[in-house]
Design a protein that fits this description.
single chain, about 190 residues, mainly alpha, two-stranded antiparallel ribbon, 6 helices, binds zinc ion
């Protein structure tokens, strides 16, 4: 993780952007995947700030020209006349544009990843809820079936009951029945 931290650090990205621009852009974008949502805007902002500092002398010169002011700022002309300054200025312009594009891409990616992950977790949650519900329903159904079975088996067992009115022994199914000879209601009271 320490090496990854170093590899995806802003100075390394700036160096790569200078010497190997395509790799620099890839590392810059990959940084978001390594660090995730945490401070996704930091690296682009840092690189924009560095580019702005590099372009500052040029910016000051342009600004002074625009407002027609001749100011003698120390080292400004020396920096502007330095043979490598145009090169640095074009690098600053390039890295600023890359940083803006990376920032836009990471914002879009972030939205996409957030939406996708919330959709996926929603989907998984729904799936488990559905499963739980159907499991519950199956369990309830099984319970009901068992109860019915117990009830019907109880009801189907014939009981011998002696009629308290006429003394005839009847065979009844369930707990309540009618005497065959006197039609009075007889009841099976269970075994004692
Ligand atoms: Zn009877």
């Amino acid at each position: 993780m320490k090496i990854a931290n170093l590899f995806f650090s802003v100075p390394i990205i700036i160096i790569l952007l200078y010497f190997l621009p395509p790799l620099g852009i890839i590392v810059f974008l990959a940084r978001y995947l390594v660090y995730g949502n945490r401070h996704f805007f930091r690296a682009p902002i840092y690189i924009m700030a560095c580019a702005s500092i590099l372009a500052l002398p040029f910016g000051i010169e342009q600004f002074l020209k625009l407002i027609h002011v001749k100011a003698n700022i120390p080292y400004l002309q020396e920096i502007l006349n330095w043979e490598y300054y145009p090169n640095l200025l074009s690098f600053a312009r390039f890295s600023f544009i890359v940083a803006v594009i990376v920032l836009i891409i990471t914002i879009l990616l972030r939205k996409l990843i957030n939406t996708l992950s919330s959709k996926i977790s929603q989907f998984i949650g729904q799936y488990y809820n559905d499963r739980l519900q159907s499991d519950n329903e199956i369990a309830k159904e099984n319970d009901l079936k068992l109860k019915e079975k117990a009830l019907t088996s109880k009801q189907k067992t014939p009981h011998a009951v002696k009629c308290p009115h006429c003394g005839k022994t009847n065979s009844i199914i369930g707990t309540v029945g009618k005497c065959e000879s006197c039609r009075s209601t007889i009841e099976y009271k269970g075994k004692h």
